[in-house]
Amino acid sequence: MKHTTLAFLCALTLLAGKAHAEVPAILVTEYTPMVTNSSHLAMHGMHLVWQAKGGLYNTTSTGMDWEIFAYDLQAGTISQITDDADDDLMPRTDGNSIVWQKHDPREGNQVFLYNLSGNNPQGGTKISTAEDGDNFAPAITDGIVVWNRQKVGQAYHPQEILYYNTKTQYGPVVISNPAYNSSTPRIVAGQIIFKQDNPNGTDTILTYDVNEQNPVAKPAPTDFPWYATSKQVDGQQTVLSRYSGTNREIFLHTRKNGYTPITANGLANKSPVISQNHIAWTAQNDIYLAEIARLMQVQTTSGSDSWATGFRAFWSALSGGVDHYIMDVATDPDFKNFVEGYRGLQVGNATQYFVGGLNPETTYYYRVQAVINGSTTDYSQKVAVKLPKAGAIAPGVKALPHIYNLLLK
After folding, report:
1. CA neighbours within 13 Å on the CB side: how many for 123?
2. Same domain, yes or no: 231 and 302
3. Are residues 40 and 149 in the same domain?
4. Distance between CA atoms of 150 and 110, rounded to whole angstroms?
């Protein structure tokens, strides 16, 4: 595996909405001139993967076939995962491993696995077997790999679903009925979900729970919602490419803020992916990456328990690997007069906090930020709390604030 370090990340200024003047982005592929036609992005946590033609310096890639590349968002390094004459396609990652489809002229399409923590043979490990025929469209979530297989022969063979566990190295095993055509596998909370075509023209949604002792594929409940989990969605955030009439731009959508433009550069921006506080996309066969923590906002709730000398603050969990939350408490709505000890206070990653040592019959204001992968979000909406007279105790408060906060940690 070859890799290169982005010693200098050139900031490309991209215009955004009125609320946020600009969204800086880096050109991930700026220092890889021999890597072209980057596409099929996938991202999870702090790892971005894609396929492209060409290769890094000191590799044998000629640009005639597709190779797999990975970018470590924390280290700022690009690694070339494959370096051979075969087409390596459609990579996916769960942040710990990469899987992809390799087209081998001798053995057909096969599925390969690469462990991002190291200890890999050159080009990864084949987890499908040679006699399997065509294996394609692998997906991975939390160490669970699934893909489609169709045996090649004189007679027609239905598509099957195969499963492999990267943590236990169990598999691959067929989890679908070989007599029926099965397709579109996906993974949700330890369950593999796929469709089975029935002889009467209908289809059945089946689930396979890998956590069961002896799992078998079972029909899903009649009201089970079938929808394709989009790689463009992370929690309550969605990223998409929209055509403006002359070009395509990238937008971030949340229910609260609607559409926030990420780009306004006149390029053909497309294929965006999102994970935690980052968005990546392609434009003119290059890859761009934007850090969007400051576009994210913790949602506070207006209700709070209060007593004469303190209150309990609440907020909603922010999707995407929160390091910790930060709280400010002040005696004025402009946060010019902070309560001692409550300016930028790290309060752990729970979604409530007891604030104590305050004065009765006084109005206090609090706001919350989140830190994600070392980057800080925008402030939440401020919340005003009016404390009652001395002697009043909030319903349900049975422990001293500092004891309760210790328990939260």
Report:
1. 17
2. no
3. yes
4. 11
> Is the pLDDT score of 253 beyond 60?
yes
CA-CA distance, 276 to 233, in Å (whole number)?
10
| Tokens 């946020």, residue located | 20
User: Which two tokens mark 338?
Assistant: 């902070």
Q: Choose one of 264, 294, 324: the last residue of a domain.
A: 294
Q: Do 302 and 283 lie in a common domain?
A: no
Q: What are the CA-CA distances from residue 363 to residues 123, 277, 351, 386 (Å)?
A: 62, 34, 22, 4
Q: State how many domains the chain has.
A: 2
Tokens 């009043």, located at residue: 392
The vertex-22 CA angle with 18 and 25, nearest 5°, equals 150
Task: Verify that 95 and 214 share a domain, yes or no.
Answer: yes
Residue type at position 84: D
Copy the structure tokens of residue 236: 């309550």
Task: Please state, in angstroms and rounded to a whole number, the distance separating the CA atoms of residues 90 and 68.
Answer: 9
Distance set, CA 95 to CA 45, 68, 75, 126, 141 (Å): 6, 15, 14, 19, 9
The reply to whether 280 and 348 lie within a common domain is: no
237: domain CATH number? Answer: 2.120.10
Tell whether 114 and 241 lie within a shared domain: yes
Nearest Cα to Cα of residue 146 among 130, 128, 158: 128
Q: How many H-runs (helices) and E-runs (strands) does the chain carry? A: 1, 34
Which CATH number does the domain housing residue 315 bear?
Answer: 2.60.40.10
Residue 57 contacts by C-beta under 8 Å, 6 or more apart in sequence?
2, 4, 34
Does residue 404 sit in helix, strand or coil?
helix
| Amino acid sitting at position 305 | D
Specify whether 73 is located in the same domain as 113: yes
Least confident of 135-149, 241-255, 303-317, 387-401: 387-401
User: Which tens digits make up the pLDDT trace of 194-223?
Assistant: 999 999 999 999 999 999 989 999 998 876
User: Which of 294, 322, 344 corresponds to the end of one domain?
Assistant: 294
Other C-beta atoms closer than 10 Å to the C-beta of 106 total 7
Write out the residue range of the structural domain in which residue 100 sits: 2-294
Which run of H or E residues covers position 265?
none
Q: How far apart are CA 92 and CA 44, in angstroms?
A: 9
In the structure encoding, which two tokens stand for residue 114, read together? 């690469």
User: How many CA atoms lie within 13 Å of 387's alpha carbon, on the beta-carbon side?
Assistant: 23
pLDDT digits (tens, 9 = 90+) for 266-317: 889 999 999 888 999 999 889 999 988 888 888 888 766 889 999 999 998 8
